[in-house]
Amino acid sequence: MTLAVKIPKACRHCSFISDEDKCPRCGNETSKDWQGYVVVVDHGHSEIARKMGITSNGKYALRVR
Q: I need a surface site. Which of 4, 8, 25, 51 has the fewest CB within 10 A?
């Protein structure tokens, strides 16, 4: 019995983290090469979300290559 482990990937365009090959938010390619992340819970009141240009809640990579 082999368990399949999904590797989280980050979108090259919007930095959203998911397990998909294409970003579910914007449809661009994702990358396995990313570093750090931030979880945005309330994007409307988040200074970090505003500075990063994030307009919806979720998990986002800090750096994507």
A: 4
Q: Would residue 3 count as lying in a domain? A: no
Averages of pLDDT over each 10 residues, the chain, 65 residues: 87 97 97 97 96 96 97
* C-alpha dihedral (9, 38, 62, 22), degrees to nearest 10: 30
3 token code pair: 């368990």
| Contact present, 16 and 25 (Cβ < 8 Å) | yes
For the domain that residue 59 is a member of, what is the CATH number? 2.20.28.90
What pTM did the predictor assign?
A: 0.89
Q: Is residue 53 a part of any domain in this protein? A: yes
Number of neighbours of residue 32 by Cβ within 10 angstroms? 10
Is residue 4 situated within a structural domain? no
